[in-house]
Design goal:
By secondary structure, the protein is of the alpha/beta class. The chain has nine helices and ten strands. The chain has helices at about 35-45, 80-95, 115-120, 170-175, 185-195, 220-225, 235-250, 255-275, 280-295, and strands spanning about 20-30, 50-55, 70-75, 100-105, 110, 130-135, 140-145, 155, 165, 200-210. The longest helix has 20 residues, at about 255-275.
């Protein structure tokens, strides 16, 4: 059930996350050579890790320092991030876990990530559905959120999926991740939908991971920090399309957040006109994304279009 059909759920009787009831879910799509290192650091903190591999070519090879708590599920084709996240969370739920940390393949967790997240979670409201965390942005070279609070947790409108503690009971009852988004804005949409259903979204202000969004640019650092994240043209299409769809679905519930997103899209288009390479192909991706978003034409990006 999505935005317009979301109703209030009974989300008050939650078991808090613990080392025993929290699994790790990682989605892969042709990861780089450093993934095994990131996996070792992350998987060692959890009783079980479930890897969902959307790669067409990559095949996971278990090494001596990766133990049997890591479970590998190969899809064999790119079915989208939302579907892979749902698959991993469902497997975790069926194996008796009540919470899951969802993780991107290029995110590096700190060795003390889970212990800090569990400590912070003790102060969370009983209806908490998602607990994200602060992170160091490799693309920006800075923290996502400034460290201006001593609170263990703070409320957020949305948090990113990577490094996010997810309550699997609420995830199951509120409607899971949107698979028709394929990739981009999946995290924003589920955060808004869970709050519409009466759940809370929180964030740990401690920077507990390093996360990469988009590609690094050759621009001077002062300019690159102001630039939109550099993504491929198909990703610009899906990001624009899914943002437009989310704005349309949730504008009445979260007008300030949606206004900021609309201004962000306008800023990206203006920046593309001024500086970005392949600007006309990118502008075409923006235009098509807006049209498809507002007409609910979703799913994988169109093949051979860009």
């Amino acid at each position: 059930m999505h935005a317009n059909g979301t109703t209030k759920m009974n989300v008050s009787a939650n078991t808090p996350p613990s080392e025993a009831n929290t699994a790790l879910v990682i989605v892969l799509f042709e990861p780089d050579s450093q993934f095994p290192l990131r996996l070792r650091v992350a998987a060692g903190q959890f009783p079980a890790t479930f890897i969902i591999d959307n790669s067409e070519k990559f095949i996971f090879h278990r090494t001596n320092d990766i133990d049997e708590s890591v479970h590998y599920h190969r899809v064999g084709h790119n079915g989208g991030l939302g579907k892979a996240l749902n698959t991993g969370c469902q497997i975790a739920l069926e194996n008796g876990f009540e919470w899951a940390v969802t993780l991107d393949q290029d995110t590096l967790l700190e060795e003390y990530y889970l212990s800090n997240m569990l400590s912070a979670a003790r102060s969370s409201p009983v209806n908490t559905a998602l607990i994200g965390c602060n992170y160091f942005s490799e693309s920006r070279g800075s923290l996502r959120y400034s460290r201006h609070t001593k609170a263990l947790l703070s409320k957020k409108t949305t948090v990113i999926t990577s490094g996010c503690l997810t309550n699997l009971g609420i995830w199951q009852s509120v409607g899971k991740f949107r698979e028709d988004y394929f990739i981009d804005s999946i995290d924003h949409e589920i955060c808004l939908r869970m709050q519409c259903a009466g759940a809370a979204v929180m964030c740990n202000p401690l920077p507990l991971m390093s996360h990469k969004i988009g590609h690094k640019t050759c621009m001077p650092s002062a300019v690159s920090r102001l630039a939109p994240y550099r993504h491929s043209i198909p990703r610009k299409y899906t990001a624009t399309r899914n943002t437009a769809r989310t704005i349309l679905d949730y504008g009445g519930h979260y007008p300030l957040w949606c206004t900021k997103k609309m201004l962000g899209l306008a800023y990206e288009i203006g920046f593309t006109l001024l500086i970005e390479p392949e600007k006309w192909r990118r502008l075409n991706a923006y235009a098509l994304g807006l049209r498809h978003g507002f007409s609910a034409c979703l799913g994988p990006p169109p093949a051979n279009l860009f």
